[in-house]
């Protein structure tokens, strides 16, 4: 949240600019009133002073007389004043309008100036609040994995209590911040659960540097991290599903994978439906009222290109959330349905390396069944059983799905989706242990083709194990914006 400091003169100019439309409307009304009064003046004075106000010349003299009253008639264009009672009454009313025609705009500018001062003060307060909220997202050590990570979210109530902020302060700050989002935790439950509303603030990466030293690149659709890996982790529904961005971000970081996340709320839900109309028509987005709108067509095409690294990524893994109460907490979807033009027959397209994919799935299934992920001593037995399924709870995706789009509909591609229960991604403390173990399985099965061998690169570059990764992570104690 960056705000430029304004001096008083600049604020005064801005105040005049901001209320210029209202001022013009007020002046128009007063000018119309003046014209009406001038007509009345002409009617009564033309009879009393026909030599001055009679005929066509009299109309001109009347209008000149009426408007020169506003500036005191320094040129003495209207030397003959009214002689009738009605004419003098009109002259009095024009005198009142003379005051209003200057007082009203001046009042508007004064009011706008006061508002500008108030807004500037509020902007500084929000900037301070923004820093305060970001400090609340300082990395904390997960008691299971011992890794230091940023919290998924902070409740509005906890921010009120711990950071001494009002609810209005928090909401206004989140509206202005680039990397904060206000969400309702109740949205992560099934509608049948009748969950109580609970406002939380979510933080997500937009730019800067990740914990492993990689650049977070801001895009029109959200953000990306290129780790030069052959695996790309994609969060397509970050704006609608609480915790998705956080889980996908750390899954990518733990495994040393590329990361792509759609964080821009102006874009539609890009996982479920991407039509040709979405990615091909000419953009009609233009600048409006000084604010640049997103070129949605360009954003979508950049999104698709970054997912596949323009055709270079060998594996693409989509992370989504499900709020429904189903038997599986990890639902794998790896089929796309394709229509053949002749007769409209549907065929199934699967990953090119399906055996490798099935190897990943089987390892995850075994890991969940054996609870083979880091848990604090004493909590392992208390953990509920987790299950996974393959194309059962969620069937294969259709032609408008992003999985189909990145394969160009011609052949299978190494892309699959993991739908993870909201209770894991958003509501319990097993998200990091599971993300860590899932990253390890994917990395061991698919491998990584990261080429840069500097210390700041992914932990998998030089065969560094996950225990060493934990030690490296523990050394990063700085506060962060989910980095």
Short description:
The chain has helices at residues 8-18, 20-48, 50-53, 55-68, 85-136, 156-163, 167-176, 244-255, 276-279, 296-307, 354-369, 402-406, 422-427, 431-446, 466-474, and strands spanning 140-141, 148-149, 153-155, 180-184, 199-203, 208-209, 215-218, 222-225, 231-235, 258-262, 315-322, 330-333, 336-340, 345-349, 388-390, 415-421.
How would you portray this structure in words?
With 483 residues, the chain is of the alpha/beta class. It folds into 2 domains: 125 residues, Helix Hairpins; 270 residues, 3-Layer(aba) Sandwich (Aminopeptidase), CATH 3.40.630. It is built from 15 helices and 16 strands. It has a 9-stranded mixed β-sheet with strand order 6-7-8-10-9-11-16-12-15, with helices on both faces. Strands 3-5-4 form a 3-stranded antiparallel β-sheet. Strand 9, helix 8 and strand 10 form a beta-alpha-beta unit. Helix 1 packs across helix 5. It is elongated and about 110 Å long. The two termini are 17 Å apart.
Count of separate structural domains: 2
Residue share in helices?
A: 40-55%
Q: How would you characterize the largest beta sheet?
A: 9 strands, mixed
The proportion of residues in beta strands is 5-15%
- Classify the fold: give the CATH topology of the largest domain: Aminopeptidase
* Total helical segments: 15
How many DSSP E strands? Answer: 16
Order of adjacent strands in the largest pleated sheet: 6-7-8-10-9-11-16-12-15
Cα shape:
elongated
Structural class: alpha/beta
For the termini, the CA-CA separation is 17 Å
Show unreliable segments. 279-291, 450-481
């Amino acid at each position: 949240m960056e705000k430029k400091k304004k001096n008083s003169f600049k604020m005064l100019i801005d105040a005049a600019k901001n209320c210029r439309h209202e001022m013009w409307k007020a002046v128009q009304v007063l000018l119309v009133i003046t014209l009406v009064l001038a007509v009345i003046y002409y009617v009564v004075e033309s009879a009393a002073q026909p030599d001055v106000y009679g005929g066509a010349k009299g109309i001109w003299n009347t209008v000149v007389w009426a408007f020169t009253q506003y500036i005191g008639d320094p040129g003495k264009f209207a030397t003959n004043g009214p002689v009738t009672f009605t004419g003098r009454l009109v002259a009095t009313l024009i005198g009142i309008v003379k005051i209003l025609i200057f007082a009203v705009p001046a009042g508007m500018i004064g009011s706008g100036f006061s508002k500008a001062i108030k807004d500037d003060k509020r902007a500084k307060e929000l900037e301070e609040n923004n820093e305060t909220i970001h400090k609340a997202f300082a990395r904390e050590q997960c008691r299971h994995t011992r890794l230091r990570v940023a919290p998924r979210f902070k409740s509005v109530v906890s921010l009120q209590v711990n950071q001494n902020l009002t609810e209005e302060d928090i909401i206004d700050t989140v509206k202005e911040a680039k990397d904060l989002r206000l969400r309702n935790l109740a949205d992560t439950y099934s509608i049948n659960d009748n969950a109580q509303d609970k406002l939380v603030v979510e933080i997500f990466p937009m730019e800067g540097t990740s914990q492993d030293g990689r650049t977070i690149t801001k895009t029109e659709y959200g953000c990306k991290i290129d780790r030069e890996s052959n695996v790309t982790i994609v969060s397509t529904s970050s704006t609608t599903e609480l915790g998705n961005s956080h889980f996908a971000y750390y899954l990518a970081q733990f495994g040393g994978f590329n990361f792509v996340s759609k964080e821009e709320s102006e874009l539609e839900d890009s996982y479920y439906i991407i039509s040709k109309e979405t990615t091909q028509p000419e953009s009609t987005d233009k600048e409006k009222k000084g604010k640049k709108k997103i070129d949605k067509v360009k954003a979508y095409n950049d999104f698709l290109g970054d997912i596949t690294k323009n055709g270079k990524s060998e594996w693409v893994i989509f992370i989504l959330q499900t709020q429904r109460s189903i038997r599986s907490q990890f639902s794998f979807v790896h089929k796309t349905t394709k229509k053949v033009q002749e007769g409209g027959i549907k065929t199934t397209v699967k990953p090119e390396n399906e055996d490798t994919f099935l190897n990943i799935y089987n390892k995850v299934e075994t890991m969940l069944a054996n609870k083979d992920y880091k848990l604090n001593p004493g909590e392992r037995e208390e953990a509920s059983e987790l299950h996974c399924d393959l194309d059962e709870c969620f069937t294969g995706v259709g032609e408008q799905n992003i999985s189909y789009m990145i394969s160009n509909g011609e052949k299978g591609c190494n892309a699959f989706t993991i739908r993870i229960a909201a209770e894991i991604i958003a509501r319990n403390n097993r998200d990091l242990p599971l993300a860590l173990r899932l990253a390890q399985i994917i990395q061991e099965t698919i491998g990584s083709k990261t080429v840069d061998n500097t210390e700041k690169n992914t932990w998998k570059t030089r065969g560094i194990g996950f225990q060493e990764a934990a030690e490296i992570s523990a050394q990063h104690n700085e506060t962060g914006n989910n980095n």
